[in-house]
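[AMINO ACID CHAIN]
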Amino acid sequence: MAEAEGLYPTLVANSVLNAFLSYTATVLNIITIQALKKASSLARPLKTLLLSLAASDLGVGCLVQPIYIAVLVTLITEPNTGSGSHVISSLIIAFVAISNLLGSVSFFGVFALTVDRFLAIHLHLRYQALVTHKRVVAVVTLIWVFSAAYFFLFFISINVRVIFSATTGALSFATTGLLYCKIYAAVRQHRNQINALQVQQVVQNGDMANAARQRKTAVATFYVYIVFLVCYLPFWFVFPGIILYYESVLWKHLLCYSLTLAFLNSSLNPLIYCCKMRRVRRAVMDILRNNAFSTSYRMAGTGDFYSTLVANCFFNAFLLFTALVLNIITIQALRKISSFPKPLKTLLLSLAVSDLGVGLLVHPVYILLLVMNIEQNTNNRIFIMVYKAYLISSHLLCTASFLSIIALTVDRFLAIHLHLRYQEFVTHKRVVAVVISVWVWCSCISLFVLNSVLENVLAIITVTIGTVCLTTTGFIYCKIYSIVRHHKNQIHALQLQPVG
């Protein structure tokens, strides 16, 4: 039990930390992926490996950390269920599956980067002939396929998985360390040779510049390796301990923090690329300053629209995670509250589910639309598909939220106005029927949006219904205020009467 074992502060602290790190990992890796695509001077094999690593880090921020937060929040709100609950078991399986996939991709991606830099320095001119773009793409594809297959070891045997992971990890780290020692020796030898040639004034500037570039990229990938080592080694030490001493509270504390430290790696990698790779840093600065895109592109004719798009991308990325975390907590809390009337709980759950859907679907699709507008990719089929998905999801979920608020208002009015007759009139089955009707109606509206013929008619109907609903809601709340004030005066008058 989380509270009895003193895990509550740890669970809360890690939920907050991962909510922040999820946001930074998502935003920084989106910028990094865009920068890598723009950095044309970067070697294609190196760019492919960095894109694969950035994509896995983006997956950690978008998928792994939100699921990890959901697991932590479920343990906070349902401390007595442990891992026996169906919900927590499903979340843990999803978490283990996706984290194993993306963690393995990151691990082997770092190893592949090390091998690539070793070959670039060791082979010199033969590097381009041996390390081609197609071969690197094949290696990256193999890494993703192998990482996906690695998850099935979890179902075969936990002992086999631990032994396989320990053996593979030890060999990879030993090989990586040896390769970096060889890289250091080769770089030092090249530097001494260049210094000697500079004295003799024989070396060409192109050779010196190429050697300097290879040396800098090798140093950058070494920082990636060191940071990966620092972030993941604590978890690899804690993992065997939690298997052997599962009931130990100390190991559970260490497991929570070691996982958070491992996920921190996904936020640090983009910073390393930006700080240690000048071409990536320049591409990032171009993106942030709007130099990478055509300055003639302006929507609505406003010169500052680019900054508006970028600001809304960041703002919606933040709101996405707050909507996810807060509504998951709300849904779990509503399920735990037994004193709430079932009709009211049903309406609140419907509203929370629609708001959670906004965080899961509407915000990400809207961010993708903004990014495509920034990149000027608005004249292709993908943009049209994304725009249609945005229209459907936003009309479905936002309309469901709006109508749920209307239903909540009517429910509270009936509860105050009908008194004892409320339970007889507003039954749970009737409320469930109303909620289902709301969602069916919203689904129909969302599908009608795609019909260009009905678009204007639908807009008129939506404005009319919205105006009527808002007016009715305002009127109902005035009635509720009047009734509540009348009841309060009656209670106050009865309290003042002497007891006869």
Remarks:
- Confidence is low (pLDDT under 50) at residues 291-303.
- The two ends are 53 Å apart (CA to CA).
- The longest helix spans residues 158-200.
